[in-house]
Structure formats: structure tokens, C-alpha cells
Amino acid sequence: MKKLLLSTALCATLVYAADVLPVEKRSFEQSKYIPDISLIVDASYVSRSGDQDAIPHYELPSIAHALLGSHSHDGTTHSTYNANDGFNLNYGELVLSSSVDPLFNMEGVFHLSEHGFEIEEAFFTSNVLGNGLRLKGGKFNSNFGYLNEQHHHAWDFADMPLVYEAFLGMHGINEKGAQLQWVAPTKTYLMAGIEVMQGENEQMFGNETIGDPEVTTIAKRADAPSLFIGYVKTSVDIDKTTVLGGLSFAKGASRIDHSSDDENPHAFSGDSTLYGADLVVKHFFDSYSFLSLQSEYLSRKMDGEQFSSIDLTVIPYTYNTIAMTKEQSGFYSQLVYAYDKNWRTGVRYDAITQNDVSVASAFAPTDMHKYTLMAEYYTSEFARFRLQYDRNEALYNEDAQKQSIDTLIFQVNISIGAHAAHSF
Length: 424
Hints:
The protein is mainly β and 424 residues long. It is built from three helices and 22 strands.
């Protein structure tokens, strides 16, 4: 009897939906919603000066370490792009995207490497809220700043700018969460957005417990979600020139756990704030030729406790604790010229401009710079060949001696299938 009543209720609901819903929302042709599928492969040949065994141990003192080469953490091997001398298969990127129905779109970006499989992005979007509102949910790249939203294959250089990788890691702010954006009904583009994210960034944010609660809790877990982001962006066209600018803000808990590192086991617990300002000026000479200036400035403050000399081999764990505040800033600025649809060339300058640490004994230099040149050739929009040279004068070895590293990269980026257009 219950089954009969449920079946009757279901039929009545379907009849009601067919009578009440607009025609365009009652049904749709599934063939129109078959996902676009693309595969992008990025490989490179690298020649880098210096001791290749020592390079993974170089660091930006009091800021970040392991920015070059491969390193192990928690039993897992992590590699930066273009990590090793000789040949590198940086990644394969599989992308699926489609309309779900008249209300939602969905996209999945899957990162494949020799070390594993990763869901880089998997999110839905909806533009039917009206009044210029758009909703996004899932795992995605935050719209903080300008570069963070872009995937590696859309960058103008083979590597991430120094300040981005130092503050946020090579994945940037890539999190599970929700986003709400609003585009104002103005003649010029004006967009504001807010994001609530889980808070799991490798370099600056985090909320996991440090230590083993059953043995010794070094720092307690922070409530999740723990990362909150806001930004405003605007754009104006002046004849053949487009100017895009933005201001961004991120605040969240920090739980940075390197307690299991073989060298200098340490951790940090506190709260962090990140500010960003970005500017892009792009002048078009014709449909394919343009000159683009792109700059971003990032400034962060981390306030909490630093744990050092952590020993996990004894019970309870032993460690030293000291209050610590870091105020650090940096920027990059790049100029790219596209001669035609096939040839581009560019130059980029990176610098860390502030490195203030409250602990008097901390080694915190500010003389950290990087210079990069590149030239690239497109056989089509699906294949790019890039030659890049950079001189890195930002890293120090374990004896606090500054290192100068020259790197030559030949990068190949090839894609097949249908792929959505990149943002401006």
C-alpha cells in the first residue's frame, strides 16, 4: 500500500512539473550536454647551474624552502615544474566541461603526473541567480589577485613568479569552498567577489592539528572553513588599450606543519592575512599583435607561535616555542610582446621587498631578486614551444650564503580536444 501511495505521489509530481515548468526547463536534448574533453601535456628540457643535489635544500630565509627541484614531505615526493636537469614530464591535464542543465555548468580539471593523480579543480557554476550574481562551488582556483586563477599552461612564463610561490606555493590558493561574484550594472566592468574556503594552503594557511592528539598536541586544529577571501576588480577600454586592475584580501588560520622533516623540523600556528594589488595594461596593435604589462604586489602578515627543534621520536614530543610575527612583501612585473599569432617574447622581474621577522635571531635578508627572459613560438593555438632563461639571485644555502642560479628551459605545451577560452 505504501509503495502504491509513493508511486501515485511521484506521478502527480511529474504531471505537475510538466504543466507548471516553462517549456525550456521541462526537458532538453542530452546530446547538447556531452562534455567538452581536452588533454594538455607539458614537458620541458632543463639545464641548471649549481650543485643539483644541494639546490632542493636552498631557501628564501624566513619565508619558504624547497622552491626548486624535488623534495620529500610526509613520505610523499613533491616536484616543482621543471624540477630536474634534463627531461621533465611536468604534467598531463585532463579537462571535462559541460552544461549540466539550464541551471548549472560543471567543470573538472584532473592533474596527472609521474607521482600521482590529483583533482586540481571540480566545480559547478550557476548564472541564473539574476542581478549580475554568479555562484560557484566545489574545488577551484581562487580569484584572489590576477595570476592565481590561471592554470600553468596559460602563464606567460614556464614558472610561477617568486612572490606567489614563496607565499602560496606552486598551486596558489586552490581550495574546496564556495564563491559568490557580483558584476555591477555599470558601463565599465566592475566585479566584486567573496569566497569561503576550507583553508588548506601549503605555504600560508591551514587548519589541521599539528602533532598527534594521542601523544602530544603541538597546536590544536582550527575551525573549518578557515579561509575568507574578498576582492574587487575593474576594467576600462581606452581606444585599443585595456586596463584591468584589482584589490584582494585573504584572512585565515595558519597551521604549517613541517614537524616530520628530516632537516630542521619545525611548525607554525597562528593567523595570517594576505593583501594583493594587481594591474594589467594590454594594448592591441591588431587582432594578433599586442604589448602587455602585468604586475602584482603581495603583502602578508603571519602572527602566532613558531615551534622549532621538534623531536617526534620521544614521547611526549619535545619542542621549543616562541612567539613570532612575520611581515613580508614582494612583487613581480612582466612585459610581453606578441609580434603576430606565432611569435611572442617577454621579460619578468621578481623581488622580495620586505622580510621583517620579530625574532631577533632570525636570518631574514631582503636582497632577493630574479630576472627572466623568454621567447615562444606557436604553431597553432594548440601547440607552443618556449625557450626561457632566468637568473635566480634569491636563494640561500644552509650556511646563509647567497646563491646565483642560471636556468635554461625549453618547454613544450601541446593540447588536443575542446578547451574553454582563457580569461583576459
